[in-house]
Amino acid sequence: MNWLDICALEEINVLGSRIVDGPKGDIAIFRTSNDEVFALDDRCPHKGGPLSQGLIYGKRVACPLHNWQIDLESGEALAPDVGCSHKYPVKVEGGRVLLALKTLSDCA
């Protein structure tokens, strides 16, 4: 897998995100309060709202438009909502955030 060096972990605020250009649009990289990182398409499956501007709590992000809850690990909307945002491989090595542009979830 080809990993892209995005930034230092400290460059993403705790409970914040960073946007990077992807081949099919923006990708949001999220940092949780436990310094875990997740990467999803930066659009909610509902109305395309920018997930990077949503509130992060636990391993979820709330879409800023209509408060849909998106699981950061799977990209899936939480019930009763249905849909998902593509997720991407992301990891932290040596304090650096690395991203691969291969989608891990198959959703519309």
Quick take:
Residues 4-99 form the Rieske domain. The protein is built from no helices and ten strands.
Describe the structure.
With 108 residues, this protein is mostly beta strands. It is 0% helix and 40% strand. It has strands at 4-8, 16-22, 25-31, 37-41, 55-57, 60-62, 69-71, 87-88, 90-93, 96-99. The two termini are 23 Å apart. Keywords: 2Fe-2S, Aromatic hydrocarbons catabolism, Electron transport, Iron, Iron-sulfur, Metal-binding, Nitrate assimilation, Oxidoreductase, Transport. GO terms for molecular function: 2 iron, 2 sulfur cluster binding; metal ion binding; nitrite reductase (NADH) activity.
Radius of gyration: 13 Å
Strand order of the largest sheet: 2-3-4-8
Strand content: 35-45%
CATH architecture: 3-layer Sandwich
Looking at the structure, the CATH topology is: Rieske Iron-sulfur Protein
| Total separate domains | 1
> Structural class, judged by helices and strands?
mainly beta
Number of strands: 10
Q: Quote the average pLDDT.
A: 94
- Major sheet description: 4 strands, antiparallel
Distance between the termini: 23 Å
Uncertain segments are: none
What characteristic shape results from the CA principal axes? globular
Helix-strand topology string: EEEEEEEEEE
Seen as an oligomer or otherwise, the chain set is: single chain
The share of residues in helices is under 10%
CATH superfamily: Rieske [2Fe-2S] iron-sulphur domain
Pfam family, one: Rieske
InterPro entries: Rieske-like_NirD (IPR012748), Rieske_2Fe-2S (IPR017941), Rieske_2Fe-2S_sf (IPR036922)
Family: Belongs to the bacterial ring-hydroxylating dioxygenase ferredoxin component family.
Domain Rieske: 4-99
